[in-house]
């Protein structure tokens, strides 16, 4: 009998241990993020982190969500696919995240998405409109329009002006080739074929490559690469004393491109998948204030804003979750969110609707280094 009492006591203590562990696990909503915080794309990664962090800080200042604060854990992936995949595994296994959020590109998401799917954890708002993040998946939900939506907008503009020779600057990898394919498919309907100019990801351009680009005699350049190589192309063209119209996907990071290109960026158009940061929409004002309150010194850019809006949508899904801190309950909440107005920017989600927005606007870089719609 004494033995049974001791056994029962031990079991009770063991139960207390697990209950305590569960309680500790649910003291915060832990959101996992992998972003390039070092390397050539660091300023873009920092903006993604800071936009979300600022919004979550504003939520925590008001008492959190259902009584629990939000904790954003951001790991540096150096813009490397394998590192981003390893980061995702660590966030899922070690940090116990309820969602993976705001990975900085489709390439950085490729190894992370299958891990989220296996774990049954929401993978929300990757900074990409590429096909890989738009394939049917029970856990992947996007915030922004597709690259197909963006490319159609810019191509209809330039071909409407009668420009014929379209050159696509793209990365020579899975995602880059898919972006080229979108342009090729669109132009084929008009009896046109674009010229391709492939680049190695994370490699620097040299003079021979830039000359090879000019030899293609582009009427317009469609840029699907990051701000660094895009800025080098713009500078080289201007140094040659010429001007070639160029449109870039939102993937470039508008502010990052403007800073890298300097005066050579004037006249370049960049598609935008969130409202202009100078607009008076309530969500734009709210995010600008959150960044200011969080101590971010630089003016809000489009990457800040997109990440902040994503954080707001994720917060709403967490707020509606039936079991606080439960990843599967959060996933179900996102799938049933419906139409949600963030403050002038509306998203729509449902069981068969995982892509929240088709919003696209073309902005032009002015001589003063501003992006104007």
Can you name the CATH architecture of the largest domain?
A: 3-Layer(aba) Sandwich
Q: Would you identify the CATH H-level superfamily of the largest domain? A: Response regulator
Q: Which term fits the overall shape?
A: globular
Q: Quick one: how many beta strands?
A: 14
State the CATH topology of the largest domain: Rossmann fold
Name the structural class: alpha/beta
Give the domain tally: 2
Question: Could you characterize what this model shows?
Answer:
The chain has helices at residues 2-25, 42-61, 81-93, 106-109, 112-119, 147-160, 174-188, 207-215, 227-239, 254-261, 282-293, 302-319, 327-335, and strands at 29-35, 70-76, 99-101, 122-124, 140-141, 166-171, 195-199, 220-223, 246-248, 269-272, 338-341, 346-349, 361-365, 371-372. Residues 1-25 have low confidence and may be disordered. Helix 2 (42-61) packs across helix 11, helix 6 crosses helix 7 (174-188) and helix 9 runs parallel beside helix 10 (254-261). The protein starts with a helix and ends with a strand. It has two domains: 25-144 and 278-357, Response regulator (Rossmann fold, 3-Layer(aba) Sandwich), CATH 3.40.50; 147-272, Rossmann fold (3-Layer(aba) Sandwich), CATH 3.40.50. It has 13 helices and 14 strands. 45% of the residues lie in helices and 16% in strands. The relative contact order is 0.14. The strands form three sheets. Strands 7-6-8-9-10-13-14 form a seven-stranded mixed β-sheet. It is an alpha/beta fold.
């Amino acid at each position: 009998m004494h033995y049974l009492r001791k056994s029962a006591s031990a079991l009770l203590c063991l139960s207390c241990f697990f209950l305590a562990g569960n309680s500790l696990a649910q003291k915060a909503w832990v959101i996992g993020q992998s972003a390039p915080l070092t390397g050539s794309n660091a300023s873009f990664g920092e903006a993604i982190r800071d936009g979300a962090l600022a919004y979550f800080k504003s939520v925590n200042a008001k008492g959190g969500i259902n009584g629990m604060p939000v904790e954003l854990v951001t790991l540096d992936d150096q813009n490397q696919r394998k590192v981003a995949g390893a980061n995702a595994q660590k966030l899922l296994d070690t940090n116990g995240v309820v969602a993976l959020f705001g990975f900085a590109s489709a390439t950085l998401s490729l190894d992370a998405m299958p891990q989220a799917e296996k774990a049954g954890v929401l993978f929300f708002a990757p900074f990409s409109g590429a096909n890989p993040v738009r394939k049917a998946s029970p856990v992947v939900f996007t915030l922004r329009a597709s690259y197909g939506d963006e490319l159609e907008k810019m191509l209809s503009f330039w071909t409407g002006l009668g420009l014929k020779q379209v050159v696509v600057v793209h990365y020579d990898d899975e995602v880059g080739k898919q972006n080229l394919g979108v342009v090729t498919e669109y132009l084929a309907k008009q009896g046109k074929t674009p010229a391709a100019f492939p680049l190695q990801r994370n490699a620097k351009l040299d003079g021979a490559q830039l000359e090879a680009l000019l030899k293609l005699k582009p009427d317009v350049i469609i840029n699907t690469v990051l701000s660094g190589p895009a800025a080098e192309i713009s500078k080289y063209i201007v140094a040659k004393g010429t001007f070639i119209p160029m449109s870039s996907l939102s993937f470039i990071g508008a502010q990052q491109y403007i800073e890298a290109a300097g005066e050579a960026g004037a006249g370049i158009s960049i598609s935008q998948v969130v409202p202009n940061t100078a607009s008076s929409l309530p969500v734009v004002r709210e995010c600008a204030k959150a960044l200011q309150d969080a101590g971010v010194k630089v003016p809000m850019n489009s990457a800040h804003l997109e990440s902040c809006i994503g954080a707001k949508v994720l917060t709403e899904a967490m707020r509606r979750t039936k079991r606080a801190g439960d990843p599967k309950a959060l996933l179900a909440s996102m799938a049933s969110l419906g139409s949600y107005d963030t403050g002038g920017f509306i998203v729509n989600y449902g069981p068969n609707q995982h892509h929240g927005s088709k919003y696209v606007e073309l902005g032009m870089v002015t001589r003063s280094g501003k992006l104007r719609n």
